[in-house]
Amino acid sequence: MAELTTLARPYAKAVFDAAKDQDAVDHWDQALAFAAQVAADQKVKQILASPGLSEQRKAELFADCFEEQLPEALRNFLLILAESKRLILLPEVSALFRLYRADLERTVNLQVNTAFEMTAEQQQKLVDALSRKLERKVELEASVDQTLIGGVIIRTGDLVIDASVRGKLAKMAKALGS
């Protein structure tokens, strides 16, 4: 996975810079998200891995998956990826593009797991506190995981804040075991 991300990074950066220059970041984000879904499909992966098809033909088949006519820039990008045998990287390119977009817009998406359902007021307090702390607009995605016993786990990108009872018990068990 890390290797694929490393390979995808220059493509994602280049397409993000182009989208930003065209003032079409939202459009490119949507198109790349769809392309990533197509590329992640098992049947599409088999087609992309087929040695019997030229890279040009693979790019054309891939572009045909889109319902509407592709903008020339996106078609060219898919062709570049195909020629480099990198169409399989589209999910990583899309994910990195989203990170670059969030950085540009100074937003952060947080996944919050709690042991119990949070009220709207609690969620808003958490969003406000984290917005001040991170100096970004926070978008919260809350879910309930009763195995946490109590507390909360907050995830965004590489950052994980485990303030759950389960996490604290695991740390205590590890400390006692050593």
What are the salient characteristics of this protein?
178 residues; alpha+beta; 2 domains; 8 helices; elongated
Topology:
Layout: H1 2-21, H2 25-40, H3 42-49, H4 55-64, H5 72-83, H6 90-105, E1 107-114, H7 120-134, E2 137-144, E3 151-156, E4 159-164, H8 165-177
Parallel strand pairs: 1-2
Antiparallel strand pairs: 1-3, 3-4
Helix pairs in contact: 1-2, 1-6, 2-6, 4-5
Total of domains = 2
Mean pLDDT: 88
CATH superfamily of the largest domain: N-terminal domain of the delta subunit of the F1F0-ATP synthase
The major beta sheet can be summarized as:
4 strands, mixed
Strand tally is 4
Identify the CATH class of the largest domain: Mainly Alpha
CATH architecture label name of the largest domain:
Orthogonal Bundle
Q: Rg from C-alpha positions?
A: 21 Å
- The shape, in one word, is elongated
Q: Report strand %.
A: 15-25%
